[in-house]
Amino acid sequence: MNRREAVLRLAAVAAGMRLGPAPAFALDNTEEAIRSGSRFDSYMFGVSYYPEQWPAMQVREDFRKMREIGVNLVRMGEFAWSSIQPSAKSFNFAWLDRAIDLASQNGIAVILADCIGSAMALQVASRCA
Fold first, then answer.
1. How far apart are CA 60 and CA 78, in angstroms?
2. Domains in the chain: boundaries
């Protein structure tokens, strides 16, 4: 077991999850479910994840392992401004689209965080340079 697998397993144990297949997960977007406040059919067990920091093949493997240990929610994007906007007039969402697709393929819901904090730090750094 490598370090990444150990961290994922420790997270599962700390949350009291069994280390077996992921529980059944479905997002119900019907009007009735939204009105009643009952959109998810299981407890949410999530992690913060930074796909912009890893090679594409590692991201694919990480989502597979998350599914195996029962993760069904992931938050990402909060520190990704420099990956989303690599230069002043260019934007790159391709890596984020792939990560969201991989999460979906593994039955993992996504909370897409704003990255305002990291954007401000980059703006300040560029003006001070």
1. 20
2. 3-76+94-113
Instruction: Tell me phi and psi for residue 68, to 5 degrees.
Output: -60, -35
Q: Name the one residue in this structure whose structure tokens are 């994007």.
A: 77
Q: Say if pTM beats, i.e. exceeds, 0.90.
A: no
DSSP state of 5: H
Per-residue pLDDT of the chain (129 residues; tens, 9 = 90+): 566 665 555 555 455 444 444 444 444 444 554 455 544 556 788 999 999 999 999 999 999 999 999 898 999 988 888 888 888 788 889 999 999 999 999 999 999 888 776 666 556 566 665
Strand order, beta sheet including 73-76: 46-48, 73-76, 109-112
Q: Are 9 and 19 in contact (CB under 8 A)?
A: yes
The three-state secondary structure class of 87 is: strand
The contacts of residue 54 (CB under 8 Å, 6+ apart) are 62
Q: CATH topology for 3-76+94-113?
A: Rossmann fold (3.40.50)
